[in-house]
Amino acid sequence: MFKIILRSLLKFLFRLYPISVKSKIDSYRGIIYSLWISKYIGKLGDGSSIGIGCQIQGGGNKSIFIGNKTSIARHCILGCWKYHNGHDYNPKIVIGNGTYIGEYTQISEGSGGQVP
Fold first, then answer.
1. Residue 76: CB partners within 8 Å, gap ≥ 6?
2. Is residue 56 within 8 Å of residue 78, measured between CB atoms?
3. What confidence category does residue 17 fall into, taking pLDDT thresholds of 50, 70 and 90?
4. Alpha carbons 29 and 74: distance in angstroms, whole number
5. What residues pair up with 18 in beta bridges, in sequence order?
6. Span 76-92, pLDDT tens digits
7. Least enclosed by CB within 10 Å: which of 22, 48, 101, 105?
8. CA distances for 78 relative to 34, 84, 113, angstroms
């Protein structure tokens, strides 16, 4: 009896909130997150996105440049370190056009590097 009630309840909920609606909401959340985080980096190119949960670390945030049509998946870390282990750095991360960086990737820079 419990299974029948649960199954009926789930069918009702899935009609109210189908996967297509969830996908659309997730898409809008991603766009809003990319717009928000773009204020904290040097440049976010046209058509590029940064996944929810990504972190910008190290104080050199304005030294991170992301090209056009580039996608950085969720939960990545971009670390641009101006100071580490008693040394000052002039860091720069440049991620080129059309690049895809997968989930949970970490890119750290202390002296100036480029990801094609």
1. 50, 51, 54, 55, 101, 102, 103, 104, 105, 106, 107
2. yes
3. confident
4. 12
5. none
6. 999 888 887 888 888 88
7. 22
8. 14, 15, 12
Neighbouring-strand partners of residue 57: 79
Residue 79 token pair? 């670390």
Look up the pTM and report it: 0.75
The CA–CA distances, whole Å, from 8 to 17, 19, 77, 102 equal 14, 17, 42, 38
- Count of positions (residues) in the chain: 116
- Residue 104, amino acid: Y
For 42, counting Cβ atoms within 10 Å of its Cβ (0-12 exposed, 13-18 middle, 19+ buried), the class is middle
Helices (H), the chain: 2-16, 19-38
**Percent of the chain as helix, strand, coil, to the nearest 5:** 35, 30, 40
